[in-house]
Protein 1
Amino acid sequence: NKIKILYPRIEDDLKLHYESCHNLRKIIAKSKIKKKNYYGREDEIRFLISGLQEPLKGLPLANNTACLDLGANVSGIFLRADPVHLRADKNRVYLFDSSSFEIKVDEAVEVISKLNQFFKSDSIEFHVGINPYRWYVKGIESFPNDLPSPSMLNGLPLETSINNMFGYKKLKTFISEIQMILFDLPLNKSRINNGNLPINSLWFWGGGDFELKFNDNSLVVTDCDIVKACCFKSSVNLVDFDLTDFSELSLKESVANLCVGFSSLGDEKQIARRIKFLEFLVEKYCKSRSTLIEIISNRQIFTITFLTKFKFWKSENVFKGLGIDNNQFS
């Protein structure tokens, strides 16, 4: 049996809470560790579900996240139209996603309202999701389905992806019109005056049918909206981590197809609950010789088995670069 846990910032969180999770720190330091690359949030979720990474291929999640954001009975074909900041130097254009700037709900609504006014005659509609960083467009017929998400492109040059997008001539005109509208918005002038990056473009991605699925009858525990969206139209038992007392969560002594997906964001209370839940799983299931726990962070994969706790040595590189003394984990 394998338990897979996506915990993007576990190293950072254990640094902040190192005094309250001694046993977990020790197990992590003794675990089998494999380095991995980070290609953006959506690729991490692909890795959780399938064990594969594809750095330049986006996930067709728009219709799934639209069901989450706009209602389970939404109809039509959606694309994600997320707000981004593009910056050009002499030779290249770079994208900065929402992790690089803040957007308030009223700002998102204001921009979407302007875009809907302009494109009304074209039967193109824009929408804001529950999260003000998730935007949608409906009414675009042809579009490349495998463009990476903004998270996957953050801080990277965009030559290949922009060429793929602009290969659709009508779309190139559409994006140019959007950028002109955004350039003239008083909101963006206000953002610049306040020291915030302007929203000077939208990034379209996520079209097509989402075929990647958790195994049938999996138990998926998550506080991440994107993981929840991946569970739409699939036969999994979805548990909202934020609404569950995990000490009372009905978990069998032998577990198969348990997946945990944590958000990359969270306040101190949420972080403390995640660490406590992880300790709960390790304590409960590492007693079994037949269960393997795989923890996936942005940087590393930690594999914990029944034998891990019997090791006499610890990795000296688990928390390298985080300012943690590895002797704390003895």
Note: The CA atoms of residues 213 and 234 lie 7 Å apart.
Protein 2
Amino acid sequence: KPYLLFVMGFSLLCDSLSGQGAVSASFGFHSEVIKAGQTTPLGINVSRRPGADVLAYTVGQLFGQENQAGLLKNDPDRRNGDVVWLKEGNSWLQIYWNKGWKAIGAGDEDFSNRQIAENTGVFITSKAEKDSLLVFGGYLLDQAVALNVFPGFNLVTRGWPVPVTLDETHLSKSPGLSLEDVVWLWDGAQYLQLRWDGRQWTDLNGAGDFGAVLVPSLLAIQVKGPGGLIIMHPPRYLIDAKSLPDRKAPTPPAVELGFSATVRGNPTFRAEWQSSSSKLEYSTEIWSRHGWFSIGRQTGDSGEILFSEALLHRLKCGVARVRVEHIGRVN
């Protein structure tokens, strides 16, 4: 029987974990609102494969080779559809969908394989009449986000599919961030412009403490100093400390991810894996700011497909993993 991850707060009612057995790679999803008639920053904070140390996508991988994301078709002469702004050095490509991924000024050249710079993102100018929602699912990075920034504007992905405050990122400790640099954070209506003054995050007048502000999926760093290495850390408990594997523990399950729907037609983010033995028990664990918590256990015959689902109309984001343990004592 599958388990539905209804709300992240539900995890607080469950038992915390003992740390036994073996766990799969962590996975998750996040949804982003694309504002109608506006230009929205968009960072993708999950990876296409487990164990990745950078977030890397092509245009086709991000939005689908056949525009599965549903961006509004654009006529480059009329400019009546959505445009994806892709930063390359100090210039911008304006990419759109029209029987393929193309770029303004480049004719019918195929841009589906155009690489988006690692650990960055894009902007989307929407011509739609209503806001739209894009949902991205994948695996978590296994380390902090790191990239070099240079004088001028730099795009940096948040790195994680769950909410992170500016203080939690430890961005202020990055060797490449100077007291002159400005961090731009989109709050859905306007940009906050913040600086690190050596003690706290303030506005450009040196007022306030903005360390508790949530970081959007993509931020911009206006480097006015020399630049250098920027590091974005995950919130607490999201990445476990490295430890030696338990030789008595079963093999962690290989989790496959995708989107589906319930029998009532509600969209879901789905994780499934194959049971290795009827003598193994699998539990779905979800992350919260208090740690990892189990929400249910499953068993299955060897080769049987087990799965868990998250209801996307109830959740904006979530992180989970699958723990496997032997049933009974292992000698």
Note: The first helix runs from residue 59 to 63.
